[in-house]
Amino acid sequence: MNCPNCNSKSIKKIREVSVTQENIKTYLCHCNNCDYLYLANQNWLEIAYKYKFYGDTGYVYRNSNLVKKSLILFRTWKLLTQKQFPKACDIGAGIGLYARLMRDNGYEFHGADQYSEMLLIRPFIKDNENYPIKTAFEVVEHLTSFPDFLKEKIKKVDLFLFSTELRQVGEVPENEWWYYSFQNGQHIGFHSKKSLKKAFEISGYESQKLISYGSSIHAFANTRQWIFSLKLSHLIWKLFSIVEIFKRLINKIIFKEKSLMIDDYSYIMNSMKKDNKIDS
Ligand SMILES: [Zn+2]
User: Fold this and answer.
1) What's the gap in Å between 221 CA and the centre of ligand 1?
2) Structure confidence at residue 206 (pLDDT)
3) What pLDDT, on the 0 to 100 scale, is given for residue 50?
4) Is 88 exposed, middle or buried (0-12, 13-18, 19+ CB in 10 A)?
5) N or C, which terminus of the chain has less Cβ within 10 Å?
6) Which residues are 57's β-sheet partners?
7) Is the bond into 147 cis (omega within 30 degrees of 0)?
8) Which residues of 29-42 are buried (b: 16+ CB within 10 A; e: fewer)?
């Protein structure tokens, strides 16, 4: 068995784990060459994608946050270059929420997703054009091979903005790590900075142009202006986050507002467990 990221044979089976609600056994494997961590023999994926409802109560919040971050970055680039923002495409667009919100803000985003009808952005579904800007959020950890995705879907771009939660280099987190989400079974690959760089190098990109916004948002920036905009917008985002914390605190104290996102998630998970017990 070769590494799905770098094709090396230097693979170690770390431990057996159970995935999906049907507890299918598989192995968590680690590549000694590129540091990629992944689940072997992905023969349960049909089961993992069988249910349309996963109780993901954070989906809208995460998308809205991504839009705020993207706007800071794109506005920084526009101020810097004095250019019109080009057409862009969100790959793995899901229902099309991110692309819709970006269009609402005046950015000509399209969407592509072979597994979704992208109901929110019809008829702006086109993946056959050359887009200088591409995004892919909550996609990389679902892929069998990130290098294949880069070569086939991203190709030549000025900016590729994407998300995936990174492990520390050389670290294999315990089973409780939230990002594995074994009970769901859809996350199959877990990158570190090292394995991510390797994926870009193998796909013909200059890996020094890879920039991370903390542990979960990353970008491949192919122009000097994008590299500078990413670095500057990261600083602006940090200031913006402090303001957001104050806003939330004020809303909590004065208006007694508390998000139901986490409570709803617990409620849904408990309901799903009960339903499964009734079914079985
Ligand atoms: Zn590898």
Assistant:
1) 23
2) 94
3) 82
4) buried
5) C
6) none
7) no
8) bbbebbbbbbbbeb
Ligand 1 mean position, distance from CA 65 (Å)? 32
Rounded Cα gap, residues 65 and 137, in angstroms: 12
| pLDDT of amino acid 148 | 95
Structural tokens at position 21? 């609600």
Residues (pLDDT < 70) of the chain are 53, 127-128, 276-280
CA of 236 to the centre of ligand 1 (A): 35
Q: Report pLDDT for 68.
A: 94
Q: Is 82 helix (H, G, I), strand (E, B) or coil?
A: coil
Q: 20 alpha carbon to ligand 1 midpoint, in Å? A: 25
Residue carrying the six token digits 């590549």: 31
Predicted pLDDT of residue 280: 46
Q: Where are the beta strands (DSSP E) in the chain?
A: 11-19, 24-31, 37-39, 88-91, 109-112, 133-136, 159-163, 189-190, 210-213, 217-221
Q: Do 89 and 129 contact (CB within 8 A), yes or no? A: yes
Helix (H) or strand (E) holding 245: helix 224-255
Q: How far is the CA of 10 from the centre of ligand 1 (A)?
A: 8
Residue 270 Cα to ligand 1 midpoint, Å, equals 38
- DSSP one-letter string for 195-236: HHHHHHHHTT--GGGEEEETTTEEEEE-SHHHHHHHHHHHHH
pLDDT of residue 114: 87
